[in-house]
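fyi for ur records
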Amino acid sequence: MRLTSFTDYGLRVLMRMAQAPDRGFSVSELAGEFAVSRNHLAKVVSALASAGFVETKRGGGGGARLARPTASIRLGEVVRALERDQALVECFSPGGAVCSLLPACGLKGRLRNAEEAFLAELDRSTLADCVQPAFARAGTPLRASAANRKAGPDT
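which gave:
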């Protein structure tokens, strides 16, 4: 399985927000941290808000923040929401694809099973499982230095 960069950044945004769940984050701030286009990240945050993972507020004291507790956000749920329009293979797309192997294809069912197993595995974990407690308490950005990552939170 391969996730789109859209979903990758969606997961990163949620993990960053989980570090400081009561704080509002601006799209510009997050885009700067992740070194990604502000416009791209704005679309990601909008999709997360539409799916009910984050809430947004304009103006002073605004920004985006988690709409639910981290323990209630399942990773599979996030991936399904953000990958909704991305078929694993062309024949899974709405309307399917013209394929000379159908209906005798023995691969499609196996790929569907693999996709379901992948998402089921992600459903076993929540956002809370992905946020390192020491970083979350300190509010340290996820892109901590390589030395900090090697040393670990207890050193």
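The first strand starts at residue 54 and ends at 57. thats all i got for now
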